[in-house]
């Protein structure tokens, strides 16, 4: 902790001596808050020592970031208490590791939900993740980004009723059906980003979302193709924007997309292509 305090002191003194400091101070509060939103929360708080203006400016920040690499349990607990002291938390971005307890994590999310959380990003470094109950039937959460984690199935009697934007970045599911279950629990979903990797265990990724308007797929990370049938089934009749980069699938099937206005299809395959795939490629070449 003393080393962290020393680094924060060095950072603020360096900013004061910087020839650009004067220019930065001339920026309006709105722009400064935008800049602060990209910093880890510990660095945001450290700016309070820069000058009288910054002493209270950081308190208006509503986007918070926490990186637990490396991590000390007491540091995470202190961050949770810090979030609890805020009056408004619009965005919470967490990079956690296996040392962070599930109960501490749930407490942190509960604090954020009670403070009007609208965006939640969680990177778990390949640890099992279960949605806190406070997220179920919570209408204000609009953006959910999950990265490098193993997702526990969502219960069948609950929903993520406010989520409009969902990112699944190198996420492991218990089965192919778990993907369909998760998407069906997001009745307002409009924007979906899927990035597969060698960690992703789903063979056929089914995207059956009638409300979906924008879909981006990246399946270019890996060293070798999985055995058997693997790829995507996409049924999104309201889709308007579609992008796919895929060098590993051997099966891709699209449903009708009458609302589509923009598409980028980049699929590479060195194996025999199923009939559905041929239909996909001939359709994409006309757009």
TrEMBL record:
Domain spans labelled F-box: 21-67
PROSITE patterns the record matches: FBOX
Any Pfam family matching the protein: F-box
InterPro entries found in the cross-reference section: F-box-like_dom_sf, F-box_AtFBL13-like, F-box_dom, FBL13/AtMIF1-like, LRR_dom_sf, LRR_FXL15/At3g58940/PEG3-like
Annotated CDD domains: F-box_AtFBL13-like
PANTHER family from the UniProt entry: EMB|CAB62440.1-RELATED (PTHR31900:SF34), F-BOX/RNI SUPERFAMILY PROTEIN-RELATED (PTHR31900)
Protein name: F-box domain-containing protein
């Amino acid at each position: 902790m003393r080393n962290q305090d020393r680094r924060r002191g060095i950072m603020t003194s360096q900013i004061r001596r910087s020839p650009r400091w004067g220019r930065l101070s001339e920026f309006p509060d709105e722009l400064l808050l935008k800049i602060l939103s990209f910093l880890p929360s510990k660095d945001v708080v450290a700016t309070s020592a820069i000058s009288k203006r910054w002493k209270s400016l950081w308190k208006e920040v509503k986007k918070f970031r926490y990186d637990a690499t490396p991590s000390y349990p007491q540091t995470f607990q202190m961050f949770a208490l810090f979030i609890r002291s805020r009056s408004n938390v619009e965005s919470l971005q967490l990079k956690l590791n296996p040392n962070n307890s599930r109960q501490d994590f749930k407490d942190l999310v509960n604090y954020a939900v009670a403070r009007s959380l609208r965006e939640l990003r969680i990177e778990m470094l390949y640890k099992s993740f279960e949605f806190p109950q406070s997220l179920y039937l919570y209408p204000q959460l609009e953006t959910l980004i999950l990265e490098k984690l193993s997702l526990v199935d969502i219960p069948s009697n609950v929903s993520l009723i406010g989520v409009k934007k969902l990112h699944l970045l190198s996420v492991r599911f218990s089965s192919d059906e778990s993907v369909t279950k998760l998407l069906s629990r997001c009745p307002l979903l409009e924007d979906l980003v899927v990035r597969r990797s060698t960690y992703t265990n789903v063979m056929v990724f089914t995207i059956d979302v009638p409300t979906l308007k924008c879909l981006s797929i990246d399946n270019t990370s890996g060293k070798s193709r999985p055995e058997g049938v693997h790829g995507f089934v996409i049924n999104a009749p309201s889709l308007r924007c579609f992008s796919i980069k895929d060098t590993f699938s051997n099966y891709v099937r699209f449903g009708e997309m009458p609302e589509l206005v923009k598409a980028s299809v980049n699929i590479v395959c060195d194996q025999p292509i199923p009939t559905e795939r041929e239909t996909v490629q001939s359709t994409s070449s006309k757009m």
